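Mods, move this if it's the wrong board.
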Amino acid sequence: MNPVIETILQHRSIRNFADRPLSDEQIRTIVECAQAASTSSFVQAYSIIGVKNKEVKRKLAELAGNQSYVENNGHFFVFCADLYRHQIIGEMEHMDVSASLESTEKFMVSLIDTALAAQNAVIAAESMGLGVCYIGGLRNHLPEVCELLNIPQRVIPLFGIAVGYPAQAPDKKPRLPFQHIYHEDTYRQDRTEFEKQLGQYNEVISSYYQKRTNGKRDDTWTEQMANMLSKPVRMYMKEFVESQGFNLK
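Not the wrong board. Structure tokens:
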């Protein structure tokens, strides 16, 4: 155990922040930590848009499903998969790189690079005593988000991260058990054991919700997931991704 591991293991989503902006030094440090993340073949296929403007934040909050903490935080970061600069690189070097940029492989590289950078940013922010919350709701209305943030072709805003000084201290939400997540040498496919582990986790989650809501909620994780997955959302995504020049080949 050390301070880095302690910071990681104490992660929880913060959705209520003090009215206190991050300093420029904090913002720069968080971004530089994001840039220190591993990147496939040194491609660095992401960009980060920092949003300070209150009106832009308000509009993003509305597009993300009226989530107040998108508007009210210390700083809002938008993490984007970005192959726009690589299109420019091809033009600078007088090479046709379109086939590569439109491949499923480079689409996956851009998603992975962005996620790795974002998690570095989150750990850095939390190590400063700040709270964070990932905002996937930006994907509810990506064309409008792109227009608002002046996003070019070959760039996709994947999610936001609200960062700020916590004004709440929620309990840590229990994760799936280690033995359910970790497989050694081969993927274990014992259906009986699989369902047993999920059943045990359901009891943990139900108890967590009961305590958190004073008995107003007691649903299980499998119930929650099944209900969510039975209602497909953002089904425009394939067309949008292709319209931005990704995942065409």
